[in-house]
Amino acid sequence: MTPVKALNHVGIAVRSIDAQRSFYEDVLGAAFEGVELVPSQRVRVAFFRVHDVRLELLEPTDDESTVAKFLEKRGEGLHHLAFTVDDIQARIAELQSAGLRMIDEVPRPGAHQMQIAFLHPKSTFGVLTELCQPRQGHL
Ligand code: CMX
Which residues pair with 139 in a beta bridge? Predict the structure, then answer.
């Protein structure tokens, strides 16, 4: 199996980005990078950078968002881990042929103009896991 290249970001489900921003920015000293809407995922996402890793706060934009369901079921907290890969389509094929269950069999656009694909938590011992392929030369 081809190893992942790096931990790209940690996803954290939140009810309100505004309520938590000061903790990450002022208490932890992480660099705030901005907020982006990801309509396909029905989330508003805030990014904070700590060296080579981002923290991604995910706030649902409506009740149908998977993050809204997560908050209802489990409350606020860690939501997923995302790993950088080079050739996301090839990695998906490799994981599928090893018998892992993908949520996304075809990569789709995520935040930061990355191509992303999620593995199902039932195949990853309960940790929702994302593969992401950043644009050339970006984190
Ligand atoms: N981490 C671990 N397990 C999770 C989870 C998470 N973040 N979200 C859901 N699950 C678990 C549920 O607890 C449930 O487990 P049990 O069957 O043991 O109760 C199981 O997955 C299925 O959950 P569900 O509520 O029945 O079904 P959902 O409709 O919520 O779908 C999932 C679950 C994982 C398929 C869906 O949340 C998904 O497709 N997630 C990937 C996309 C996503 O999270 N996008 C937001 C991030 C945006 C971004 O980074 O760009």
Answer: none
Inside any domain, residue 139: no
To test the pocket of ligand 1, the residue of 69, 101, 128 to mutate (highest count of ligand atoms within 8 Å of its CB) is 128
Question: What is the separation, in whole angstroms, between the first and last Cα of the chain?
Answer: 23
Tally of domains within the chain: 1
pTM confidence score: 0.95
Q: Taking residues 116-124, report their average pLDDT.
A: 97
Q: Examine residue 18 and state whether it is found in any structural domain, yes or no.
A: yes
Distance, CA of 94 to CA of 117 (rounded, Å): 13
Where residue 34 sits, what CATH number does that domain have?
A: 3.10.180.10
Nearest CA to ligand 1 atom 39: 103
pLDDT digits (tens, 9 = 90+) for 17-49: 999 999 999 999 999 999 999 988 899 999 999
